[in-house]
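W.,

You were right to be curious about this one. When I first looked at the sequence I had no strong expectations either way, so I just let the prediction run and decided to look at it fresh. Below is the sequence, 165 residues in total, followed by the output.
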Amino acid sequence: MRYFLLLIAIGMSTGIFAQGNFQISKDTENGSVVFKGPITFADLAAEPSFTWFQRNSAYEPGADAMEVLKNDLSGTRIIVVMGTWCEDSQNLVPRLHTVLSEANFHNVTVYGVDRTKDALAGEKATYGIERVPTIIVYKEDKEVGRIVEVVQKSIEEDLVSIVMK
């Protein structure tokens, strides 16, 4: 019996580590799944309860802005801080994923945060996060702009405005 319990414990811990370097919990306000820490778009797409990710990934970005992004994102790095519990993040981050995928851009790091905007390694302070989602664009290791919570025009047009500064 002891060996059986040990095997269950090992199996459970292996399952926890297999998820990646982020924590999973439940939001106390709306009961949704919270990813906290470094995550990927693939992590978001793989979570069965995140039906919003597939729904909002079915986004068609504007062709003119996409031409600019396909050609002018070299030397750019993007940091995304989002809350999987947050409706604004649920709407904007899948659309960002679509835009970046169509632009064949992969230099992006995504962090999930809880309602206090904390991730796992001080990202709230490091990136000055007050609201989510926050999308920070760096060019040659200098911040050149950010999109916070909502877009002005569209995700792709706002990115073009930032990149072309």
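Here's what jumped out at me. Residues 1-18 have pLDDT under 50 and may be disordered. And, maybe more interesting for your project: Helices lie at 2-18, 41-46, 51-57, 63-72, 87-102, 123-127, 155-163.

Coffee later to discuss?

I.
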